[in-house]
Structures
1.
Amino acid sequence: MIKVVLLGAGNLAYHLFRVFKASKDVEIIQIFNHRKEKLAGFNNEVATTTLLSEIKEADFYLISVKDDAIIEVSSQLQAKNSIVLHTSGAVSMDILARHSNIGVFYPLQSFSQEKEVDFEQIPICIEANSEESLKKIRELALQISASVYEISSEQRRISHVAAVFANNFSNFMLSKASE
């Protein structure tokens, strides 16, 4: 069983929790968020905490917070031999460099809690600082999606910008047409 701690309780973390909960080989053992009210929806399903000092030991620490908060969460995390990942499309993996095993787990999709998603249809872009970590991250990603791609930070950044442009431009044009 792969043990995961989710750090963050926003839209992506909500969907990751749901899809991993349905997986027979992954267990979300805890969810962290600095705001207690964001954890209310998880309280009856998994251990929660607002303190990074109370984080349980896991195989993966999946940081799913706003891009500008990744470094703050990472800097307070005691990961030992676990793999620390972030889910950002725009941030380099190197932001996690204080940890020995790092990587990126980036689902190429926009998320909202109101809309269900099918992770089997979502590409997951992965990156790691070692072949061993990359293999483990790929195993984790394959638990929820058949479309797993190894890409560099630069490739991920470009893909993210293209996806944001395509999504936002389409929405903008629909809004203008409606007006």
Note: Residues 153-178 form the longest helix (26 residues).
2.
Amino acid sequence: MAAPEPSPSGNELGDFLRARRAERDPQQAGFPDDGRLRRVPGLRREELAHLAHVSVDYIVRLEQGRTRRVSRAVLDALADALHLAPDERAYLFTLAEVAPAPSARPFGRPEVAPRLRQLLDTMYDVPAMVLHRGMDVLAWNRGATALLTDFGALPPAERNLIRLTFLDAPFRALYADWPRAARECVAVLRMEAGRTPPDPALNALIAELGARDPDFRTWWADHQVRGPRQLTKRYVHPVAGELTLDVQQFTVDTHPEQLLVAYTAAPDSASHEALRFLLQWADGPSGTTVSGDHHR
């Protein structure tokens, strides 16, 4: 099967609006059943136009990609009418090119911020890693290796959490609720693709996942988006057993494209004890491995 492009129609804005319109319940939006057959789920175009106080023709032109002249006020009205979450609203503004244009970003894997590398070296009791855009793994500590996988044994191009979640069977088996974790990955990737549409590596990852995994193709077409946030994930680890961990994500002002991600458990919980056992099993602290430098 042919791999999907980031948007089959080449009209990300229109596709996103149609997807969100299809999810909006007409009755909750104040439109009772009028007996007319609905050919598609969700709001009709005229209903969205009514809620956003714009013309139906304007909605048609937006969804068909025949206009990109969208004011901030109209985008806010559309976002309100569609009940968009904050991440979805930000994504809408990015697609409409109303948000401030991002600065030029070089492609490829960057050097890890020195302060992040130093911080990883000191996090003996916390699995942690540094991620780049699209969830590429740039650096990790011994705890992250024990919890997730030996990133140093992978080629640099395969050190990507989303790719591993879909295409690596042992990594996939770590999740107690794989569909939920995988859908979150797709939403993160969709958000990042909206920010950096010309990134060849990101587009290649999207194409590979679409070609190899039918669930990815289905969820990618849903146009769900999500930015970085605190998460709670459940794992079934072959050594430590069941773990419920908080996934903390921290940005660095001087390197905004890099995230420090740390995995912690609630104090005095069974997961805290299991995580401590896992770290002891991993034989204590070790040096940080950085992509492009050296292997453990």
Note: Confidence is low (pLDDT under 50) at residues 1-6, 99-104, 285-296.
3.
Amino acid sequence: MRNPQSTQWAQLFELPEQPGLPLQGRLRVAVVQAVLDGRLSPGAPMPSSRELARLLGLSRNTVTSAYEQLIDENFLEARPRSGVFVAANARAVPAVQAEPLPDGGGRSGAAPDWQARVLRSLLDRPTLTKPDRWREYAYPFVYGTYDSQLFPTEDFRECCVRSLARAQLPHWTPDFETDDVADLIEQIRLRLLPKRGVFALKDEILVTVGSQQACYLLAEALFDTGTRVGFEEPGHPHARNTFSLRDPRWVPVPVDEDGVVVDGLPALDYLFVTPSHQSPTTVTLPLERRQRLLRQAELQDFVVIEDDYEAENLYVGAPMPALKSLDKTGRVIYVGSVSKSLSPVLRLGYIVAPRSLIAELRVLRHAMVRHPSAFLQHAYALFLSLGHHESHARRVNQALQERMALVAQALREHLPDFEFALPQGGASIWVHAPAWVDSGDLAIIARRHGVLIEVGDVFYARPPYPCPFFRLRLSSIAAAQIPAGIRALALAVDELARARGEARENGSRIH
């Protein structure tokens, strides 16, 4: 018969389901959680390493090593000839609970009215969203995760481990104040930017927490309620929402099959563009139009903010030179991403601009977050210098080209009335459905078929209804799932058509 205390030990130290951690780490998590939750009191005896190993089916060495680390970290303490015990100071002493203040006759218990106090809200702004448990959907044609099939786990781990070497610590552990890790600036300056035809000095580059923080810093420094900001229509919703916090004067600029329309531009102070792969239509701005845009910027005295996202994801034709590479008068502010092709959660981007503006942005960034993670900057500098970034980009491009061909074939087969143009690169395809289709209505029905799409109306300042446009992202879905995903989307379209017919008969709108 099993000892009741042994059963209690086994339940108390049940290893958590964290397959990414080795057994020793999972045991440490179980012990620390039991101590911090108060289930193990200070001074409580621990089972011997031999007994706990037997109860949990672990080797004694695994338990002994976990105990030794927990002793080093003052969660446990070893007493000679007595055993191992929970350390006296293992758990923080809770704060003393003060008596409530006596009612002074005011509005006791009245909470602030936060809706009235918030001066800049984005809650009602349309943006790209996904269901909370979107990873459980079979066909996620949406943005938002790393590619588990392509992520260079061993290469990136090597760079992180190297950054933790004792000899490397002085390169990233000091407080950088307004500076960045010099190695990353050099890799951006000498390895990434020249491929886009851009040559910059080190004091013309600022590292950001992703390209979205770059937009925030630029808006904070340059925009106010009187600033005339030209924005592509349709355009990138995250940048639009970030800029909207400063409430500028919006100037919608149309987009055609070649990108942003340059002829007939109204008076502007700034123009935000995505020339490499226009967001969301994916078209590439031709060289001749790029040159005309820069001439217009000089003639009309406005500044161009170039978001060069996914510039490296090119698998058809020769790379188009960045607007910044053609800029001779300092009128282009260049925004790039270091880590997007690896994983969007790494959040490393950068701004290239005249040094006087970069100096201002450094101080502004310092007031906000000081600087992006120096450890991550250093690790990614190694990732670039060792050639991992370029080899990873080649693998990503090959995979995306395969997925693009699969989605194009499936659309032609299952949704022949839906129009699209194959992009030269990038990770998405912009689809134009028949005029009767509203992508918002389609997205609701598609979810029931396991399909997630990015509805078109969030990309417009003034979306039409019905809005027949939607975007299919290919970075979160495996190639093998694409044909079945488009078949499921076609079933959703058929269901939408039936619902539309019924709604027309009843005189109601589809929900």
Note: DSSP finds 17 helices and 16 strands in the chain.
